[in-house]
Amino acid sequence: MYSTQTTYSVEKHKQLSVLVFKMKLVPYMIKVEILFIFVTIVGYFTNPFLLEIGIGVTVLTPIALMVSHRIKQKKLYKNYPSVQRQPTLKFVFEEDYFNFERLDETVSTSKVIYSDVYMCAEDHYNFYLFLNPVMAYIVDKTGFGEDKIGDVREFLKSKINKTKLLKNK
Q: Which of 17, 63, 85, 100 has the fewest beta carbons closer than 10 A?
């Protein structure tokens, strides 16, 4: 039905990492911030020590999470040989499943049933087919052609229960 090729590069993996960061850590950070704003307000009226802790944690938590994410990201790409080789995957979307095939020196083919896909996310450049909350296949949209991207989007929406359109910067 539909097919495209995606060359996995460090840049593509960074796009996926930023996406996972936004989807998983940002809601967590918002919850932590709300909790510590509450602690800060309570501390203002009851205990100055709670006020200092609340202010400190409210300011430092998002900074610490973003810095730790960047450090982990740099270590991962430095030590991840398959990203450095930049493998190319060919995706073929059929009615009940999709195939992907590695086109580099190690040729292998795998089949994934749409019901096994946790979620499909989309930004301006890629579709992200998540098998779990933190692992996804990156499918480059440009290989479909401008006229078929809408058809592919509707096809994936009909096959995958959870879909999400992401805003671009």
A: 63
